Amino acid sequence: MINPLKAVTNVLNQTTDLVKAGKNLAHEVCPHTDIKG
User: Fold this and answer.
1) Number of domains, the chain
2) Which domain of life is it from (predicted)?
3) pTM (2 d.p.)
């Protein structure tokens, strides 16, 4: 039995990590681009 709340939390955590990685990548490509979030 999968805990729905835990599954949602995992997805949210993964999404947050992806967003952070995307911001870091964008910053490395163009340091003048500072994405707030």
Assistant:
1) 1
2) Bacteria
3) 0.60
Please report, as a single letter, which amino acid is at residue 15.
T
> CB–CB of 23/36 below 8 Å?
no
Structural domain of 4: 1-37
Please, is 23 exposed, middle or buried when counting C-beta atoms within 10 Å of its C-beta (0-12, 13-18, 19+)?
middle
pLDDT digits (tens, 9 = 90+) for 1-35: 789 999 999 999 999 999 999 988 888 888 776 66
pLDDT at 2: 80
Query: What are the DSSP calls for the chain, one per residue?
Result: ---HHHHHHHHHHHHHHHHHHHHHHHHHH-TT-----
